[in-house]
Amino acid sequence: MATLNLDRAWDLHPQVSVRPEPFGALLYHFGTRKLSFLKDRGLLAVVQALATAPTARAACSAAGVDDGNLPRYEQALAVLAQSSMVVERTPSP
Amino acid sequence: MTTTPETSRPTPSASRLVDLFEYGLAAPICLTWELTYACNLSCTHCLSSSGRRDPRELTTAEAKAVIDELEAMQVFYVNIGGGEPTVRPDFWELIDYATAHHVGVKFSTNGVRITPEVAQRLARNDYVDVQISLDGATADVNDAVRGPGSYDTALRAMRNLADAGMKNFKLSVVCTRHNIPQMDDFKAIADRYGAQLRLTRLRPSGRGADVWDELHPLPEQQRELYDWLVAHGEQVLTGDSFFHLSAYGQALPGLNLCGAGRVVCLIDPVGDVYACPFAIHDEFLAGNVRRPGGFAHVWRESELFRSLREPQSGGACASCTFYDTCKGGCMAAKFFTGLPLDGPDPECVQGYGEQLLADRPKGRGHIPKPSGDHSHRTAPGRRSGPVDVVLRRRPDMDRPPVSDCAEDPLAGMRLT
What is the structure's pLDDT at B416? Predict the structure, then answer.
C-alpha cells in the first residue's frame, strides 16, 4: 500500500492541470501524459489546499476532512504521489 | 484514431468511475480533431474516407479560434489526425499555437513529413506526442492496406524520432486478420525505437466498410488478441477500443465504455462535430464549430449528445450476463454493418453478432453510407452536367467535308 508523509509540504506537480467536474475533478500530467480522476469534491479541495498549507495534514484539515476520514485521504494522496501528480514541495530557502 | 488515455484512480469514494462518465463531462477528455481530408495515402480501411482536401476546411484563423475554446474548456489535449494532418501548410503553426495555449497535442501521421529536422523539433516540445501508423509488422502486410512504400516511410519516421531523442512516442496499429499473428513483432519494433505500442480496433467506418468483411479479425483471432492484451496489460495502449472483448472474462485496462458524446467526440476538417471518430454520418452529427456558441455549445447543448448521456437500455443485450462488461460494444461498428444499435456488436465474443450478420438481407442496400467521401479519384470526376453528343450522318453527304477552321473563300463550294 502506498504511503505519504502527511507532515511534509506537498503540491501539485507544475506540469499537472486540474479540471473540476461534477463528480470531482480530472487531473492531467503533461509530462507523463497520464490522466487521473478525483472521485469526490472533498479530495479536490484537499489537493487545491496543498500549495498554501504547511503540511498535507494541514491541507486536509483546511478542506474540512475529519480525523476519521484522514486515512482515506492519506491513501488517495499517496496514489497521486506515486504517479507524480503530487510532489513534495522543496522547502523554501 | 483514439479514444481514452491511460488512467489511474486515487479514490476515497466507492462509486464506479464508468458510471459517473455515462452522464458526460463538462468537456471531452479525449477529443479527436481531423485537420484535413487531404492525404498522400489511400489506405483501404480509412475511417474518414480521406484523400482529397475539402475546400470548406477550417482556415488557420478558424482553427486557432477552436484552440482558444479548447483552452477555455480545459481540454488537456487533442488527438489530431486526418487525412494526413502534416500536409496542411499551417500544421506546425497550429501545433505551436495549441501548445502555447496549454492544449497538448498528440497527432497521428503516416510519417511522410517526419524528417530529422522535424523530429528534433518535436523531441524538444514536451506538450507534443506523435503517433506513427503502421498496420503490418512486415512491408507486405502493411503495404497491402496502406499502400506501396508506406512501411518504409513509417519506419524512417520512427528512426528519425528515436535518433532525435523522442521518447515514448506511439506506434499505432489497427488490428486486422493479417496482422494479429504479428503482435510480438510489432512490440519488438516499438521497443527497438523506444516507442509504445498502441493497438486499435478495425471499424467498418469510411472506406473501412468496404474491406471490413475481409479484414476484421476472425473469432479465434479475437480470443488470441484478448489473451495477448491481458498478458501485456498496461504496457500496451488500446484507446479503450477493445472493450467488447472484455466479455471473455477479465476486463481490459481502461474505462470499458463507449465514450461517444460522453467523454469523446470528433471535430472534422470542416468543423462538423460528430459523436466519435468512427461515426462520420449525419445520424451522429451534433453541430458545427462555425455556428454561434462554437464547440462548447455543441458539446454542452446538442440534442444528440444529451441523448447519448441518458442511461442506455441494453436492448437485445440486456439479458446477457456479459452486458455489464461489454455494454453492447461499439455503436459505430453496429451502425455501419447495418445492425440495430441496441443489440450486440458485430464482433460480439459470444457470437450473437455473427448470427445477426448472417441474417442480414442480401446486398448492401440496407447499410448506411458515410456522409462524405474524399477518396482520391481513381476515375475521372463526374462533370457537373450532361454533355449531349449525338452522332449522326451529315445531311449533305454529297459535299466534301469542310473544317470549321477552313479559311479558303471557296471552302465547301460545290462545283458542279
Answer: 64
The answer to whether residue B279 scores a pLDDT higher than 50 is yes
Q: The domain containing residue A79 runs over which residues?
A: 10-85
Strand order in the sheet with B170-175: B196-201, B170-175, B128-133, B104-109, B77-82, B30-36, B264-267, B272-274, B285-288
Residue B74 burial (CB count, 10 A):
17
B29 and A35 in contact by Cβ < 8 A? yes
- Any domain includes A90: no
Q: Identify the DSSP state of A54.
A: S
Radius of gyration of chain B (CA): 25
Q: Is A13 on the interface with B (CB under 8 A)?
A: no
Chain A positions touching B10 (Cβ under 8 A) are 36-38, 43, 75-80
Domain total for chain A? 1
Q: Enter the pTM of the model.
A: 0.86
Q: Residue B327, class by beta-carbon neighbours within 10 Å (0-12 exposed, 13-18 middle, 19+ buried)?
A: buried
pLDDT(B7) > 60: no
CA–CA separation, B376 vs B353, rounded Å? 33
Architecture of domain B17-359: Alpha-Beta Barrel (3.20)
Q: What is the pLDDT of residues B34-82, one digit of tens each?
A: 999 999 999 999 999 999 999 999 999 999 999 999 999 999 999 999 9
- Pick from B348, B319, B355, B354: nearest CA to B223: B348
User: Is residue A93, in this structure, part of any structural domain at all?
Assistant: no
ipTM field: 0.85
pLDDT at B372: 84
The cell numbers describing B223, all together, are 480470443
Residue at A92 is within a domain: no
Query: With an 8 Å Cβ cutoff, are B12 and A23 in contact?
Result: no
Q: What is the pLDDT of residue B362?
A: 84
B27 CB within 8 Å of a chain A CB:
yes
Is B321 exposed, middle or buried (CB count within 10 Å of its CB: 0-12, 13-18, 19+)? exposed
Domain-embedded: residue A26 = yes
Whether the bond into B165 is cis, omega within 30 of 0? no
Residue B380 has pLDDT above 70, yes or no: no
| B5 touches A at CB < 8 Å | yes
Structural domain boundaries of chain B?
A: 17-359
Residues of B in contact with A17 (CB under 8 A): 74, 76, 102
Residues B20-26 have a mean pLDDT of 79
Of B11, B15, B26, nearest to A76 by CB-CB distance is: B11
Tell whether B17 is within 8 A of chain A (Cβ): yes
